[in-house]
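The data are passed on as follows:
___
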Amino acid sequence: MKKMLRNSLVLLLVAGAFLGCQREQEAAMQFEVGINKTSIPLRVMSGNLVFHSGSLVLEEIEFEGELQGNDGGEKVVEIDQVTTIDFASGNATPALPDIVLESGTYEELEFSIDLFEGADTPPLVITGDYTHSNNEVIPIRFEYDGDELFEIDAEQVTLSDDQNLEVRLLLDPVFWFSTVPTNLLDNAILGPDNVILVSEDSNSDIYEIVVSRMKLNSAANFF
């Protein structure tokens, strides 16, 4: 059974210009996924970690919400499509279609993405640089090969006929790695390409800390 990862995800709902021609009483949501690229100082002042690229391969996006009003009720929309998100460019290949919904006010919204399990490589890879306590900059690569869902909730969103809504799911490796002790990173095992690989089979002590942070609950932020 798939577990739910509901932590360290930030949902940005941004009202934008209406793009394209929607049918009457319909609205569209555009779905994007990105990562937090903020640099984090670690517990030792000389340690520093920043993430800048990587990829996520998903196979399903699902929206559930309760539409208010006389014609309301539970609405469910699923997008079944294998798509690769490039975190460096923000591009999705192939592009994700809009989530088209009846306009109105939705409560108890739930967005989830299902990671793709059919590839030879991990569905979530995030890369960056770690500044060692001796000031040496070392590439770092985090690989996650779990079968969990990423899920976040929202209390209420109103969709108008003349608006597009952008839904951005922000994965936060900064939060995930923020409690990793600096000495673990300073003494991490380097691969043959001199990269700190953090995965289930490599530097597993760091991996366990990071994955435990992925599974913590936190509230979504709205802007």
